[in-house]
């Protein structure tokens, strides 16, 4: 193998190279800076890196589908998922600007870790080899373990970090054991090759089933499916809120994108069996997530259980194993990134920094004093509960449509029922904002980046909802 | 020559031991050790599959095992640093006593 | 039964006993030492599988790095003992045992179904020596190799973040903080 073979199609991983370069730049800039004031430049540098990676992604989009060393691919699905992840990372950076100086002065490391976590996520979304997939998973998981404990003086934050680490590492070992069995069954780690070999009956089916089951457990932990979701509320609550926003949207997108690829490329022939397993998990995840969210007083815990429920909706799209389903899942992840990051941005304005959280009564009477903030929160809550014509409605619509057209009508019905349950706890927040008296005067916090990200997410949620044709075009442009 | 299944059974035993340790122990360091056992079980599988596969010139299994060792090292470094950070704050590494976050 | 089988049974038995020791010892230090034994037996198994480089890496990284790190931490924080006798929620142990047995049974069953005959012997492999592994790492597996370097960078940054003002034992509750991070 010569140099030409190593550099062929190197552009496939250009966004990742850009992110790595900027991460190093951030570390360097942090070392060279003279005083505290100059650390304001670090988030801007991070944003520049994320925008450059987005530009690189857009540039690849116009080129033919290519694969780097059979390890990473730049097809429409991977590029779409990368875009969603980069959007989430950009928004999280905006949210961190005014938040971080309050909790920890180690800014260079923070932003470098954000960039590297983004790298891991985008890499995982484009991985076509189990080895690459696993390393990418570990890169962003490790970075997130550290980031969720970034408020180091706060015991809640360190506790969240350690819980996340122990359960995450536990899940990784399931994933790895499953990957090893899959390798044993097929004799290769490349997803497409695994699919070909298994389809031609070369593989060893006895290893296949435990392998798939263990992989499912590993993925289940990462995207927080019931019954592997117990870490989610604690980590979401204890992590600094910008990190929560980043991981809720980013991890989900990366892990679901990889999940889709494993199912669709390596295991398409086994759809009949894993379809049922996923359907059962989806029903459990939606129902348990929503019913538990009903009882939460803390906004962050409510959003955590809501994120569990949302993982269930996305899983519904994967059950039929169709290309339409995976596109619907990706579209859902896009809308979810906007509305959930937006909702968490509102939580940031309301939260008590020591508790890293805001109870629902902090939102009481918000509409009187901060009408715009209340309006933004209403948009996110309505969108999350799936009320037209907001983005969340179309996300759910495409997901359930994919399920119905794949022959899983009952699953779509369960999804719609769940959606109705979820409306209760989302609307409760709105009722508090508009109809309750404020119990204690809350002075919302604000800074430029926070307002900007609130405006961006609210606008995106509305625009995606008003012009879904824009996005259905985007979806059909994703290819198979 | 030892049959492949012997290696796989050994790996399954180790994985199960690790799983039990990770679930039953309350000391965070002990949990971490259980997780290390589980990762090692996967490594035995990978190397054994590689050795007994038709294509030994393709090193996928061995290379995967090497990367898992690297991941385990990184995980252990970060995990132990986290454990120390928690211990400094709370004077315990018993996962059951870490209960500030609850709803 | 051939000599190689006998050898495997011996090494495997030690390995299993060590694994059980890791899980069941009450003293974390004992657990760590059992872990060391387990890693060493695995390195021996890798040699029997013709993966010499991996065996060396196993000894150097696991035994030389990870276990030492674990021992350091245990000694640093005093190693709380007797955690195994959990006061509350002992049901998790039951669940763990049940899950483990279930998993073991299903894994063993599938293995016995598939591999009850010894596979063809492959002689004269060059695959396990450092040269071949290096070749593979820097050509076919360049992308994961680079990713591993990123992973180590993340771990490095993490250790830096978590360890930086470790000497400041208690920093109080005021939001103002530690010396500017650029002072290195």
- Would you list the SSEs of chain C in sequence order as H and E? HHHHHH
Q: Please tell me the overall pLDDT of chain C.
A: 77
DSSP helix fraction of chain C: 55-70%
Architecture per CATH nomenclature, i.e. the level-2 architecture of one domain in chain C: Up-down Bundle
Helix content of chain A: over 70%
Query: Biggest sheet of chain C: strands, sense, closure?
Result: none
Indicate the CATH topology of one domain in chain C. Four Helix Bundle (Hemerythrin (Met), subunit A)
Overall form of chain A? globular
Instruction: Please report the number of helical segments of chain C.
Output: 6
Strand order of the largest sheet of chain A: 1-2
List keywords for this structure.
heterotrimer; B: mainly alpha; Helix Hairpins; 3 helices; elongated; C: 184 residues; mainly alpha; Four Helix Bundle (Hemerythrin (Met), subunit A); 67% helix; globular; disordered C terminus
Structural account:
The complex is a heterotrimer of chains A (480), B (103) and C (184). Chain A has 480 residues and is an all-alpha fold. Chain A contains 20 helices and two strands. Chain A has a two-stranded antiparallel sheet with strand order 1-2. The mean pLDDT of chain A is 89. With 103 residues, chain B is an all-alpha fold. Chain B starts with a helix and ends in a 13-residue tail after the last helix. Chain C has helices spanning 3-24, 28-48, 52-76, 91-114, 130-138, 142-163. Chains B and C meet through helix 1, helix 2 and helix 3 of B and helix 1, helix 2, helix 3, helix 4 and helix 5 of C.
Reconstruct the topology from this structure.
The complex is a heterotrimer of chains A (480), B (103) and C (184).
Chain A: H1 3-7, H2 14-32, H3 41-61, E1 67-68, E2 72-73, H4 76-103, H5 107-126, H6 130-148, H7 155-186, H8 191-199, H9 205-222, H10 231-238, H11 241-266, H12 271-294, H13 299-318, H14 323-350, H15 366-369, H16 371-384, H17 391-405, H18 409-435, H19 448-466, H20 468-476
Antiparallel strand pairs in A: 1-2
Helix pairs in contact in A: 2-3, 2-5, 3-4, 3-5, 4-5, 4-11, 4-14, 4-19, 5-6, 5-11, 6-7, 6-11, 7-8, 7-9, 7-10, 8-11, 10-11, 10-13, 11-13, 11-14, 12-13, 12-18, 13-14, 13-17, 13-18, 14-16, 14-17, 14-19, 16-18, 16-19, 17-18, 17-19
Chain B: H1 4-24, H2 28-52, H3 60-90
Chain C: H1 3-24, H2 28-48, H3 52-76, H4 91-114, H5 130-138, H6 142-163
């Amino acid at each position: 193998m010569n140099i030409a073979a190593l550099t062929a199609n190197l552009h496939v991983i250009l966004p990742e190279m850009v992110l790595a370069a900027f991460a190093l730049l951030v570390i360097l800039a942090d070392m060279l800076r003279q005083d505290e004031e100059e650390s304001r430049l670090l988030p801007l540098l991070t944003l520049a890196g994320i925008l450059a990676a987005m530009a690189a992604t857009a540039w690849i989009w116009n080129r033919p589908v290519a694969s780097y060393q059979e390890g990473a691919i730049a097809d429409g699905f991977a590029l779409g998922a990368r875009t969603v992840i980069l959007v989430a990372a950009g928004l999280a950076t905006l949210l961190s600007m005014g938040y971080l100086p309050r909790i920890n002065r180690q800014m260079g490391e923070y932003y470098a870790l954000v960039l590297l976590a983004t790298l891991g996520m985008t890499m995982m979304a484009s991985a076509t080899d189990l080895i690459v997939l696993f390393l990418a998973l570990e890169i962003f998981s490790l970075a997130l373990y550290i980031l969720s404990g970034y408020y180091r003086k706060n015991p809640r934050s360190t506790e969240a970090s350690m819980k996340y680490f122990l359960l995450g590492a536990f899940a990784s070992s399931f994933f790895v054991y499953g990957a090893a069995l899959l390798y044993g069954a097929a004799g290769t780690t490349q997803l497409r090759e695994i699919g070909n070999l298994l389809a031609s009956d070369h593989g060893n089916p006895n290893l296949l089933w435990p392998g798939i089951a263990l992989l499912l457990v590993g993925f289940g932990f990462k995207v927080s499916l019931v019954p592997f979701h117990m870490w989610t509320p604690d980590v979401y609550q204890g992590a600094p809120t910008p990190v929560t926003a980043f991981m809720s949207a980013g991890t989900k997108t990366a892990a679901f994108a990889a999940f889709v690829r494993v199912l669709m490329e390596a295991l398409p022939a086994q759809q009949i069996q894993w379809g049922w397993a996923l359907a059962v998990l989806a029903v459990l995840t939606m129902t348990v997530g929503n019913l538990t969210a009903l009882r939460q007083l803390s906004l962050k815990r409510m959003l955590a259980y809501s994120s569990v429920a949302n993982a269930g909706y996305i899983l519904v799209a994967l059950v039929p194993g169709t290309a339409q389903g995976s596109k619907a899942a990706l579209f859902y992840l896009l809308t979810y990134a906007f509305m959930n990051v937006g909702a968490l941005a509102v939580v940031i304005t309301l939260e008590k920094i020591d508790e890293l959280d805001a109870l629902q009564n902090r939102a009481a009477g918000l509409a009187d004093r901060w009408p715009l903030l209340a309006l933004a929160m209403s948009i996110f809550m309505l969108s999350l509960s799936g009320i037209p014509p907001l983005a969340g409605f179309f996300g759910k619509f495409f997901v359930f449509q994919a399920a119905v057209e794949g022959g899983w009508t009952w699953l779509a019905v369960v999804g719609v029922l769940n959606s109705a349950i979820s409306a209760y706890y989302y609307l409760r927040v709105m009722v508090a904002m508009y109809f309750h008296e404020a119990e204690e005067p809350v002075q919302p916090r604000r800074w430029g980046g926070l307002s900007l990200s609130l405006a961006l997410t609210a606008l995106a949620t509305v625009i995606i909802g008003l012009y879904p044709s824009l996005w259905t075009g985007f979806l059909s442009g994703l290819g198979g | 020559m030892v049959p492949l299944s012997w290696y796989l059974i050994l790996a399954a035993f180790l994985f199960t031991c690790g799983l039990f340790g990770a679930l039953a122990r309350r000391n965070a360091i002990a949990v971490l050790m259980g997780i290390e056992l589980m990762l090692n079980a996967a490594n035995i599988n990978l190397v054994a599959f590689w050795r007994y596969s038709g294509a030994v010139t393709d090193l996928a299994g061995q290379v995967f095992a090497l990367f898992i060792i690297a991941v385990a090292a990184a995980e252990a470094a970060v995990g132990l640093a986290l454990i120390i950070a928690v211990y400094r704050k709370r004077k315990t590494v018993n996962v059951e006593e870490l209960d500030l976050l609850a709803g | 039964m051939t000599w190689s089988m006998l050898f495997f049974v011996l090494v495997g038995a030690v390995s299993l006993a060590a694994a059980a020791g890791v899980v069941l010892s009450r003293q974390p230090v004992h657990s760590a030492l059992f872990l060391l034994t387990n890693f060493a037996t695995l390195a021996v198994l890798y040699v029997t599988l013709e993966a010499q480089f991996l065996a060396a890496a196993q000894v150097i990284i696991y035994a030389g790095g990870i276990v030492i790190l674990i021992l350091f931490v245990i000694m640093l924080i005093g190693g709380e003992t007797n955690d195994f006798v959990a006061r509350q929620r002992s049901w998790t142990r039951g669940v763990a045992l049940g899950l483990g047995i279930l998993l073991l049974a299903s894994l063993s069953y599938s293995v016995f179904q598939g591999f009850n005959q010894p596979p063809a012997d492959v002689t004269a492999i060059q695959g396990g020596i450092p040269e071949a592994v290096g070749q593979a790492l820097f050509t076919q597996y360049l992308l994961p190799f680079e990713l591993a370097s990123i992973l180590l960078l993340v771990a490095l940054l993490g250790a830096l973040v978590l360890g930086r003002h470790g000497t400041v034992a208690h920093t109080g509750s005021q939001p103002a903080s530690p010396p500017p991070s650029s002072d290195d």
